[in-house]
Amino acid sequence: MTSARVSLADVTPPIALGPLDGRYRPAVAPLVDHLSEAALNRARVHVEVEWLIHLTTHAVVPGAPALSDAEQAYLRDVVATFGPDEIAELAEIERVTVHDVKAVEYFLKRRLEAAPGVLGETVLPSVGELVHFACTSEDVNNLSYALMVRGAVQEVWLPAATALSDEVAALAREHAEQPLLALTHGQPATPTTLGKELAVLAHRLRRQLRRIGADEFLGKVNGATGTYGAHVVAVPGADWEQVSRTFVEHLGLTWNPLTTQIESHDWQAELYADVARFNRVLHNLATDVWTYISRGVFTQIPVAGATGSSTMPHKVNPIRFENAEANLEISSALLDTLAATLVTSRLQRDLTDSTTQRNIGPAFGHGLLAIDNVRRGLRALSVDADLLARELDENWEVLGEPVQSAMRAASVAGVTGMENPYERLKELTRGRRLTADDMREFIGGLGLPADVAARLQQLTPAGYTGLAAALVAHLDD
Length: 477
What we know:
The protein starts with 24 loop residues before the first helix and ends in a 6-residue tail after the last helix. It is mainly α and 477 residues long. The chain folds into 3 domains: 29-130, Fumarase C, Chain B, domain 1, CATH 1.10.275.10; 137-302 and 317-389, Up-down Bundle (Fumarase C, Chain A, domain 2); 396-460, Ribonucleotide Reductase Protein R1, domain 1, CATH 1.10.40.30. The chain has a two-stranded antiparallel ribbon. Strands 3-4 form a two-stranded parallel ribbon. Strands 5-6 form a two-stranded antiparallel ribbon. It has 21 helices and 6 strands. Helix 8 runs antiparallel to helix 9 (194-214), helix 9 runs antiparallel to helix 12 and helix 12 (266-295) packs antiparallel against helix 13 (319-342).
């Protein structure tokens, strides 16, 4: 008989269902301030407060009193002090309303009623009907999500991603002149430098970061079907398009003049596609570094007390890069789904976006976790320069390329005996390992001009890196 088990679902405090709120919480915790359910409700309170202040400050609704500086500060303090007690109170209201945005409206009206206890004589209790004035829930939600995502990107994700790309760039500069045997199709190829290869990845990451840094965050406040219908009927004398534009821009967002009930979310699709592309470039970095570790180019500095294998004590596994790969794949899959789903809404409104947008946090969370892992992994690497030198010295056949190219140039210059250079080098090198003596003997028998022959005789695989080291300087472009 199986004995009864403790129900883990009933344990207090609650146990996280997913790893981002459990095992990996420390790495992603900063996103909670922006992309959690509590952050969504705080953003809604913020939008409602600013809308109320905007309507009164600009005398949009006839008869509405102007709010004093103290009254505006009181309202904004509702947002600033939004914490555990307010989260619990809002949840209690929502259990009655069964509507999240309506709960925010009632929450804020409570604060208006309570204002005399803090401010003394105040007009705030009289402006309760200006809370959520002429708004549909989506007017509040679209602005809240735009503010949340902007905050998550600009204050958390982008600084972490930028720091990562800077660290890759620093490694590239440090190893700009370190010769490296290249592998194309997994086979020995024209040498490069380790720094140049890292610079390629840093350059790619930075290009995506520039795109992400330039992405727009759009918003609207125009009513139930985007027509300002209730606005115009309630206050026909107001320039509602101007009121809407100035409010959205006051929040630091880009105004969208043409929408249905929802803001179309195209900006989100654009942003998520860019972030997913950054993820995929970073995934390429993770797999390349993993391969370099496997090959011995990089050695990993062991962490004191850490275990690489439960049975093989010698192992130092590249777990940071493997963890990053998996989390980048999950993040990109979620971002792709968000981008594909959010651009479609049936006719003037459906609710698919409501549930979809609640997964923005996990999408960025898995990406941020991957960034953290790659950064930690890069800091634990050391270059085995001796191994790189041995690899190069064991592959003199890679000089077949410059030798046959020099023969072509000599032929064009009128030197005789330079026929079929590619074919002759192919016959010498294809599928064979050459020594330095083999290559130099071949060069000596070609009949090249003395200066060309001398230059080629001095060439080594380690010295055949072209402009690779200099190209790293393009990171400063």
